[in-house]
Write a structure and sequence with these properties.
Layout lengths: L4 E4 L2 E3 L4 E3 L1 E5 L2 E6 L10 E4 L4 E4 L1 E6 L4 E2 L2 E2 L4 H10 L2 E9 L6 H12 L6 E7 L5 H12 L4 E5 L10 H14 L2 E5 L3 H13 L6 H6 L2 H18 L3 E3 L5 H12 L4 E5 L1 H5 L2 H4 L21 H10 L4 E2 L32 H10 L5 H15 L17 E11 L18 E11 L2 E5 L2 E2 L19
Parallel strand pairs: 1-6, 2-7, 8-11, 11-12, 12-13, 13-14, 14-15, 15-16, 16-17
Antiparallel strand pairs: 1-4, 2-3, 4-5, 7-18, 9-10, 18-19, 19-20, 20-21
Helix pairs in contact: 3-4, 4-7, 7-8
């Protein structure tokens, strides 16, 4: 049964506006906005948002639920991961289906549909990881685009696993350019990094902090530059994932100054954590091993500046959690065997609100980089990413005054540590609606696995 819901008394914040308006929801969609008291609306459910923000549900365009990596699997399933996302005010994830070498793209996509179908608390979509670019898989790309999977991720890193060489990258970019697809790039020079890893281990440098030292910022910048030039040759757009280094931001800014369709994403871990965390004593630094790696703290200013100047457009999480016990510990005595990834899908909206409190970004920019732009970038707008008549009623009541302390003891991600343990932030999600259905009600989870639906995506809305 559809419930007609009225949210009243709150400050509605979108990427474009901040308005004191009431929001009427019916049949899972936003149907109207009106100044308080101007409409005599009736509703089955009235939510009082006085003193709170009313914001679009977050769109996290980079997650890895159940990802196989380094002989183990990411510890969040689609059920636990989407539930945690909902707790954190995210109502749509775009996860990565993985093509296994020698298999068809469609086989990988079907495998991910099976993992997610009936298990998600919130709506979801897929990107496609291409780990084997060949004539057959290139022919499959237009078919996937027709099925609403319109972006394809390639890796310049991880030789022998996901790595594509420049020729394969160029071919995939050409096909994307012809068909309206968007190439997403993990930009690190994996061939050179492997040499540095081998040399570090030979010197007995085995601790987690060496993970950051061998994956040099210059090798991220070099790969970012190369990806941009290949995209120019191919006539295709490019989206660079998890940008972490000042030098890589400079490459993106230079490309955008030329008017190229080049986009960049960063993640909360690069904005709030650093190599100080990787260097924590004992084996604690393993908790912070991800790729691209955490950088020295001085890189953070360039990332914040990039977000303000729109040289970086999106903040996603790259949520890929591995438990410290039994998973991260696979790399004791050899940093190269530590599974790469951090938990974060539950923390992103709160950390970015803290950035508003700290003066790094405005409230509207918060919604822009976390909701509206990822929705536009990946063909989900205006169904997702805004509060407007006709949009899905993915709505969060956000208390900007409450303080909370982030901790593994209270988070809902299926992982035994928090990357932000003990950090106090201002602001907290109070109530979450997904397509008009309440998923979190006044800090109580009332959602269910199977409510979340697969959302086929249009192509990138920033391309003419």
């Amino acid at each position: 049964m559809s419930t007609r819901t009225l949210i009243r008394g709150g400050l509605v914040i979108t990427a474009a506006d901040e308005l004191h308006v009431d929001v009427l929801i019916d049949h899972g969609r936003v149907v109207a906005l009106a100044a308080p008291g101007t409409q005599q609306w009736t509703a089955d459910r009235v939510i009082d948002a006085s003193g709170k923000y009313v914001i679009p549900g977050g769109v996290d365009a980079h997650t890895h639920m159940e990802l196989p990596f380094g002989g183990t699997f990411a510890s969040d399933t689609f059920e636990t991961g989407t539930r945690a996302a909902a707790w954190g005010g995210t109502t749509t994830i775009v996860d990565f289906a993985v093509q296994s070498k020698g298999e068809a793209l469609e086989a990988g996509l079907n495998a991910w549909h099976q993992k997610a179908d009936g298990n998600c608390a919130i709506d979801y979509a897929f990107h496609m990881i291409m780990s084997d670019v060949n004539e057959t898989t290139l022919r499959e790309m237009p078919r996937l685009i027709e099925h609403g999977v319109t972006s394809f991720k390639l890796f310049m890193a991880y030789p022998g696993v996901f790595y594509s060489d420049d020729g394969q990258i160029l071919r995939a970019m050409q096909k994307a350019g012809d068909t309206g697809g968007l190439i997403m790039m993990h930009a690190e020079n994996g061939i050179a990094i492997d040499v540095l890893v081998e040399q570090a281990l030979a010197r007995g440098e085995t601790d987690p902090r060496y993970h950051g030292e061998v994956r040099k910022a210059l090798l991220e910048a070099e790969a970012t530059h190369r990806a941009i030039q290949l995209a120019r040759v191919a006539g295709s757009p490019l989206y660079v994932v998890h940008v972490s280094a000042e030098e890589a931001v400079a490459e993106l800014a230079a490309a955008r100054d030329l008017g190229l369709p080049v986009f960049g994403e960063t993640c909360p871990q690069y904005l709030f954590l650093s190599t100080d965390n990787l260097a924590e004593p004992g084996f604690e630094g393993a908790k912070y091993v991800c790729s691209t790696p955490l950088r020295p703290r001085e890189h953070q200013a360039a990332l914040w500046r990039g977000l303000r100047t729109n040289d970086l457009q999106v903040v996603s999480t790259d949520h890929c959690p591995f438990c410290f016990k039994g998973q991260k510990e696979l790399g004791v005595g050899d940093f190269s065997k530590i599974p790469n990834g951090l938990p974060g899908v539950e923390n992103r909206m709160d950390l970015l609100h803290q950035a508003v409190v700290d003066g790094h970004i405005s409230r509207r920019r918060w919604i822009e980089i976390a909701c509206a732009t990822p929705a536009r970038m990946f063909g989900l707008y205006p169904q997702k990413g805004t509060i407007a008549p006709g949009a899905d009623a993915d709505v969060v009541i956000y208390d900007p005054h409450t303080t909370q302390t982030l901790s593994a003891a209270t988070h809902h991600m299926n992982v035994d540590y928090s990357a932000y343990e003990g950090k106090t932030v201002t602001g907290q999600v109070e109530t979450v609606l997904s397509r008009g259905e309440v998923v979190v009600e006044r800090r109580k989870y009332v959602g269910r696995a199977g409510h979340g639906m697969f959302v086929p995506r249009a192509t990138c809305q920033y391309l003419g």
